[in-house]
Amino acid sequence: MSPDKPWLDTNLDADARARALIERLTLDEMITLIHGPMPNLIQGEKPADALTGAGYIGGVPRLDIPALNETDASLGVTNPRRVRPDDGATGLPGGLALGSTWDPHLAYEGGAMVGREAWAKGFNVLLGGGCNLTRDPRCGRNFEYLSEDPLLSGVLAGQAVKGAQSNHIVCTVKHFALNDQETCRHVVDARIDEAALRESDLLAFQIAIEIGDPGSVMCAYNRVNGEWCGENDFLLNKVLKQDWDWRGWVMSDWGAVHSTAKAALAGMDQESGYQLDKQVYFGPELMKTAVEQGEVPFERLTDMVHRILRSMIDKGLFDHPPEPTEPDYDANGDISQAAAEAGIVLLKNDGVLPLGEGLRKIAIIGAHADVGVLSGGGSSQVIPVGGPAIEKRVSMGPSSAFSSITYFPSSPMAAIRDRAQNVAVRFASGEDKAEAVELARDCDVAIVFADQWCTEAEDVPTLSLPNGQDEVIAAVAAIAPKTVVVLETGIPVVMPWLDQVNAVLEAWYPGTRGGEAIGRILFGEVSPSGRLPISFPRSVDDLVRPEIPGMIFGPPVEGQTIPTSYPDVQQHKGRFSVEHPEGADVGYRWYDRSGAKPLFPFGFGLTYTRFAHGGLELVGGETVTTSFDITNTGERAGIETAQVYARIAGRQRLVGWARVALEPGETQRVSVTAEPRLLASYDVNVPGWRIDGGPVAVWVGTDAETAVLEGEAVLTARTLKP
Known about the structure:
Layout: H1 14-22, H2 27-32, E1 55-57, E2 68-72, H3 95-101, H4 104-120, E3 125-127, H5 150-165, E4 170-176, E5 188-191, H6 194-199, H7 201-212, E6 216-219, E7 223-224, E8 227-228, H8 233-243, E9 249-251, H9 261-266, H10 286-292, H11 298-314, H12 329-343, E10 345-349, E11 361-365, E12 373-374, E13 390-393, E14 404-408, H13 412-419, E15 424-428, H14 433-441, E16 445-452, H15 469-479, E17 483-489, E18 503-506, H16 514-522, E19 576-579, H17 588-594, E20 611-619, E21 625-632, E22 638-648, E23 651-662, E24 667-673, E25 681-683, E26 688-691, E27 694-703, E28 706-715, E29 718-720
Parallel strand pairs: 2-3, 3-4, 4-6, 5-7, 5-19, 6-9, 11-15, 11-16, 16-17, 17-18
Antiparallel strand pairs: 1-2, 7-8, 10-18, 12-14, 13-14, 20-21, 21-24, 22-23, 22-27, 25-26, 26-29, 27-28
Helix pairs in contact: 1-11, 3-12, 4-5, 4-12, 5-7, 12-16, 13-16, 14-15
């Protein structure tokens, strides 16, 4: 290492190395580092070091600063519109499937797998880490997110980011903040009071950032309390950088920058995919002028650059550049399959599952189960290795700019046939109800696969299954001796046929080896262990907002143009506000507050065995430690996820959980120490978290509505920093 290049000295910390670089950077070079294009939209010759991915930020070769090559990677390394020929990737199950595992280790392994593939393909920034709470079950992007609970979402997102960054790359957390709807996301103003926001969505991000230490945070498209997320001084400066002392850089979402000086002063550090913005706000023309005229102080520009360089150095981009290699897709597929198996939720079973001996004929119906499993659309869409089983282009709507309905080539029918030796297995598409009924008439069990495609940019207008699938399920259940329903959905769905069928599996979007995972669950090679990370409503009438807010693009406002990445709405003008009366009471907390009963509660999931709980011990003080025994009283090995809840300020909260694998007859004692902020209320007058001293109700549950052990602990009054 040359003494003239201290930024390459690995004995120095990341801040010192970044400062050494900034001393040598010119103003023009600094501006190079704070804005960048989408490579596939570059006019003319593309830079030699730019990969064809989601984003590119040019480096400074004379100072050894590498370029940033960014890929969408919520569920695997994407290849939008197949701009990289013959480049497939391993697809993880959807975010709600990962949330259903309640397994931090699997979250880490999944993130590490995606990071390895990205690094092997030459990328050094992952646009992953979805951490938004699923406030509305109809949100079209819920399949990328993890849960309705801040603790569960924060822990799993943090572990996924930590795993991704173990590969010497930067991973984001996104979309900061309150991006809880896709319809009108470019125009909506989400309104909520500070304490409620701190206790819900912001707490999820805070926990994820503490665990994962992401190199970057991506802001959301929407406004929060009147200000664009990318111009929101409260979110970016006050909360993220000051209160949480986070030292990475804030990047914009693609098409989410609206100004130069205002955005920079509010805490935005980098403009991404500038072709989708109305102007290149952080480029040489506007930003250089703003700095030279004092609108953006030079010290603020150096802070922006320092944050970027510091994260690049800290996460290993300087010292461990990507080395393009062929990923181990078989090993990576094992990780995806393990996550799918752990995330499949058994919602109903009258004893028909697992499938066993004595079967003569099995009818498989619907959802292209003969060839593959469904995946979600939008920027997270993974192209599977070898290509999709089915790919249908979307022809209308905001998502048509970049979406296709894609089925991964992992056939549930093939997995069933492999396990059902000497059994006739027949398939009907489900598109013809009469054909499906006829096939089901002469069978021992009918397995009906039902799916529902969700995508970025559009919310789902209903919680019902599309294309008449509810009617097909009901008709099959009326004629078949036994009926099993397997759901491949991106959100919860209502089930008007629930009482008519024998078993229901929620498989979500099960990823690269989803068919194999479903087959193993159906035949009992794996006992179901998934627990719902999101409540299933009985009806939209039970939701905070029965109607999705606003029309597809919102009401017009004279003189205001909303930048968007979707050609269909380039000229639309509009904005509207959505109040959040539920505040911090998202999902199961809303049901607890409103008194409504969900179809299936948060945390619910059945297994092929049984568990007993006992020996409750509670220790209070500055937090609560809950100790208890879990015994597998059944005849099969299985995994129990025991959830610990407390009632704080009259509201139910998940404060911790234990996921335990047990052999038949085995007992294990576990201890769960509550996250203190879940025992507190946020007090804007402190400001910070306030734990009221005194007794608090604590219980162990198998879901948010079912307590199996109950007690009381005494808390010590104290305050915690914001």
